[in-house]
Each structure stands twice: as structure tokens, then as C-alpha cells.
Amino acid sequence: MTEPVGIRLEGIHFGYPARPVLQGVDLTVRPGELTALTGLNGCGKSTLLRLAAGLLRPHRGRVLLGGEDLARLSRRATARRVALLHQTAPAVPGMTVRHLVRQGRYAARGPLGMLREGDDPVVLRALRDVGVEQWADREVDALSGGERQRVRLAMALAQDTRVLLLDEPTTYLDLHHQLDVLRTVVRLRAERGLTVVMVLHDLGHAARFAERIVALREGRVVADGTPEEVVTPELLADVLRVAGRVGRDPEGGWPVCYPDHPLPDHPVPQNTRI
Questions:
Q1: What's the pLDDT at 29?
Q2: Bridge partner residues of 164 (DSSP)
Q3: 212: closest CA among 226, 202, 232, 223?
Q4: What is the pTM of this model?
Q5: Alpha carbon of 145 to those of 20, 71, 162, 195, 197: distances in Å?
Q6: What is the pLDDT of residues 3-59, one digit of tens each?
Q7: 60-65 and 34-38: which strand pairing?
Q8: Averaged pLDDT, 259-270
Q9: Which of 255, 227, 219 is nearest to 27 (CA)?
Q10: Using CA atoms, how far apart are residues 181 and 204, in angstroms rounded to an integer?
Q11: CA 20 to 30 Å from 166, out of 31, 146, 178, 254?
């Protein structure tokens, strides 16, 4: 098995003329680590993933993947090193599971290689590892939301990279399929020796499945550590704008959040009733 690869973001600034998104982010993800990014909508989580995948270029700073500066690599060369599972994907009517997963081989096989019929061993392994090989000849549109997400995960695995980035992989899924996807990611990370970074809104899932949590607020890292270190009532209030309590799971020992009520977006004058 190939050794896992680490990620380093150094002094990252990125934004738009009227709206800065990331403001001086420094973050190192160690090889083989499973890290969860959390924070409110608009805090820069998805942008950070797109920068780490080479889909965006920072205005200032640099992104290193296994010591290589992504700015010096082509888009296809980057895709051979890091795979990004986007939050959503457009429907492709009539496409089968097999053909969708094969799209993950584009960076490795190129346009001419993609014209060849048949699946290479990497595609077959991706189908098998995610447990979708029995659906290989079914149309993707005929699958449930949870099944489609597993197929999209197989497509990302078909890139055969050492780094896997997941942007809200449980969005729109019911609890059963949320747990199914997250448990699959944890298993694949261990079996394949992957470095995994995933954006999760559910702090409870982040605390249970990730070994490290990084919280963003207004484009800056404001908390970084183990779930036990990061998941506190102060984090709920300062980062997620929720008043609540934090306990411990009686069997697993991971932090469990008990949110009570939302906090105002801006400080309220003392003489104002809430």
C-alpha cells in the first residue's frame, strides 16, 4: 500500500472583490489523518476544500500536497493526487453506475483511454469497496439518494488518489444513509491508507467519526484539535451560534451535543428582550 500524503495550507487568502472568504488560513493535515471541517454557512469550508483540490488558486499563500506546490501542477496532475467529492452533482440521464464510476479514471487514462471499453482493476475495486458492484448496470437516476452518494464516492475512489476530500457527504440523506456513508468513509480510510478531510455540519457526526476537528469562523481557523478538545459549549456559542450543553457518549466516550436554542447573529443591547 502506498504511503498516505499530507496537506499543508500556508497563509491562504481567497475571496471576491466585495467579500473575503479565507483570511490567512494556516492548516496542516497529517498523512493518514481523518479531519472534519465545521462552521456556519459561508465561513469558507467548501472554498478551503476546492483550494486543497486545486480547483481554485489562492490569492495569497500556497497549498502543498505531499510537499508539492499545487500551483506548479496541471489540473490533471492534481487530479491524480487528490479527489474531491462535491456536495452536489448534476444528473446525467441514462448513465449507468459503471459508466459514472469510470469517469473517475479520466485523470489517469486520459481522453483516449476513456474511449476503451471495459473496466480496469481500479474501477472494479472502487465498485467493490463501496459495495455498489451489484448495481453496476443500473441507471444512477433509478437509485435512492443514499445509493447515489455511495456511487459518487466510488467515482472519487476510482481516481486512485491518496487524498480524499468530501464536501458535506451526508447532505440530503436520512440518518440511516448518513451513518452508512460515514462508516464507509472510515473503513476505506483505514483499508486504503487515505488522508481524509470532510466538511460536516453535524458536530455530533464530526465528534464521533473524525479524530480531529477544525472550526472556521469568518474565514479563519478558530479551533483545532481532537473532538474532546474542540467540542465545548463555548464552541457551540462562538462558532455555531447555538446555546447548548456537551456530554459524553456512555459507550464510545466521544462528545455529544445537546443544542438548546439559537443565539442572535449580532450582540443584543442589554435592555433588549430576546
A1: 97
A2: 83, 196
A3: 226
A4: 0.92
A5: 34, 35, 26, 25, 22
A6: 678 999 999 999 998 899 999 999 999 999 999 999 999 999 999 999 999 999 999
A7: unpaired
A8: 75
A9: 219
A10: 15
A11: 254
Which residues 6+ apart lie within 8 Å of 229 measured at CB? none
CA atoms of 26 and 195, how far apart (whole Å): 18
**Rounded-to-integer distance, Cα 25 and Cα 14, Å:** 9
> What is the DSSP code (8-state) at residue 71?
G
Distance CA(219)–CA(20), nearest Å, equals 8
Section 226-238 average pLDDT: 96
Closest CA to 49 of 5, 99, 15, 86: 86
Kindly list the structural domains of the chain, giving each domain's residue range(s) and its CATH number in brackets, ordered by start: 1-81+161-175+190-274 (3.40.50.300), 90-160 (no CATH)
Q: Are 77 and 36 in contact (CB under 8 A)?
A: no
Taking the C-alpha atoms of residue 137 and residue 245, their distance in angstroms, rounded to an integer, is 47
pLDDT tens digit sequence for 145-171: 899 999 999 999 999 999 999 999 998
Buried-exposed string 69-97: b where 16+ CB fall within 10 A, e elsewhere: ebeebeeeebbebbbbbbeeeeeeeeebb
200-213 residue pLDDT tens: 999 999 999 999 99
Q: Are 78 and 69 in contact (CB under 8 A)?
A: no
pLDDT for position 5: 86
Residue 240, C-alpha cell as written in the block: 455555531
Calpha distance 169→94 (Å, rounded): 23
d(CA 127, CA 250): 36
